[in-house]
Amino acid sequence: MKHAFYIALFTSVSLLGCTTLFSAFATFAAVEPATQNHEHQQHNYYCPMHPEVTSHEPGSCPKCGMFLIEKEPDAATSSADDAAQNHEHQQHNYYCPMHPEVTSHEPGSCPKCGMFLIEKEPDAATSSADDAAQNHEHQQHNYYCPMHPEVTSHEPGSCPKCGMFLIEKDTDAEPAMDHKHMTPAAKKVFKQPISSLKPSNNALSIAETSSNDTTKYICPMHPHVVSDTPGSCPICGMNLEKVTVSDAAQEVVIGVSGGMQQALGMRSHVVTKGSLSRQVNTIGTVQYNENTIGHVHTRATGWIETLMVHNVGQQIKKGQLLYELYSPELVNAQDDYSQALDYLQKDKNRGSILLSKARKRLELLGVDDTVIKRLEATGETVFRVPFYAPQSGFISELTIRHGMYIQPGDTLFEIVNLDSVWVIADVFENEQSWLSQGHKVSVSAAAQGLFDIESSIDYIYPELDTVTRAMRVRVQLNNVQEQLRPGSLVDVTLYGQAKSNVLTVPTEALILTGRENRVVVQRDDTRFASVPVKIGMMASRKSRGASRLK
């Protein structure tokens, strides 16, 4: 019994000690996080390079000297702060644009700059909630009829009014038109009552139906779906509408109210008869006048003994010495002429005939008249026969040098005279009917300081350029001072012949569709019709028109 009592007492003491120890441990465990949190709050600055270095106040790292930065708050603290900020943000929903730190819960003025306080935008949470509500409602009715937008449904189907298939709404649809950005004229139209914008009873009228009219059924959304019997469209399911197909020559008159005409900026023009003239502005190129280009050839074989022209571009005068030629053929011709002179003294009749033939031979060989007279006077043969320039100008081509052997057929020189030049202008193919030879032309060369040089069309080339499809027109200009140089570009204005007593319409009134041309004709103050028209030439923002413009 005594041993049992000691065992029970020891067990009770042990249990009491464990209970006390467990309570103490729980208390220590509860106190330790609080201590850590307190320490965490105290040491809220740390070094970015040495995170183990912390402090409860700003300072510098003892290891690297870098400034200590503040630790980010815990998630719970951040949530509490955000809730407090949101609460404060809701209370202070007015702020100064220049000083955002100045806030208020009611409208007023900034105490620093006096600027009116403006209202803050709603929070993202509120916007998200509104969007979610709208999306929920949008998802409920996300199918609608294209012809009757008021008919909506939460599932696919057909419109009970027109039978068209319901289509799904577009979530990225553009917002409705803002009337704030309308022009004053447009606002005036939209402010009018609906009845004033509707056409009158006789505003939309169609010519009387002829006996050839037929009835067809057409889908309003797909006009290419045509049927002879009523039914529905196989594409969209919409009921086919009954239409009367009449002659294409019938005129459709549309009514447009005065307010709508003013909003659209419509203008009218009275079609009258008058004269229509045109001028063609184009670019021309200055070229040599081919009628003034001269070539120098030899008619006898020989060698160049003396050459007086040395380079291309050298200016020469008419009668200037070009070169001297030694030619056995020319020497023999001079000897024959001398013998004819001697024979003339013996037999005048026979001698005169021989002398005439010998002189003609020298002339045909290109010997100058001064050389022949010298031969008659002295009787001495000229071994180096001189040749002179046939015209003034400059050398554009030079093919010989001193000592070269030449023969008939060789081009020795090309001499160009710039007293007159040609201007070749390109004209489009559709403008050639305006122009003819002799029409007035005006040429300007701004680079040379020449303006409005008057001339006329000298020649129109019969063929078109195969690449540019342009017609070439030639104009001849006097260039005595040689200011116009070949190869330069000039502005050319060609004046066409005026055509009188023709119907003219403004070009801005034309509707060019590619297949036909149409204009809108005003039948009365509020009724308009689109009619086809045949147009001719266009000039001065006007076009020659015909057909149904009466």
Task: Describe the protein.
The protein is an alpha+beta fold. It is built from 9 helices and 35 strands. The chain has a 6-stranded antiparallel barrel. It has a 5-stranded antiparallel β-sheet with strand order 10-14-33-32-31, with no helix packed on it. It has a 4-stranded antiparallel β-sheet with strand order 15-30-35-34, with no helix packed on it. A hairpin with a 7-residue loop joins strand 1 (45-46) and strand 2 (54-55).
Number of strands: 35
- Spans of 5+ residues with little confidence (pLDDT < 50)? 1-41, 75-80, 173-179, 192-211
Q: Classify the oligomer.
A: single chain
Content-based structural category: alpha+beta
Number of helices: 9
Major β-sheet profile: 6 strands, antiparallel, barrel
The global form is elongated
**What is the percent of helical residues?**
25-40%
Write down the Rg. 53 Å
Could you report the average pLDDT, rounded to the nearest whole number?
76
Question: How much β-strand is present in the residues?
Answer: 25-35%
End-to-end separation: 143 Å
Strand order across the largest sheet: 16-25-28-27-26-29
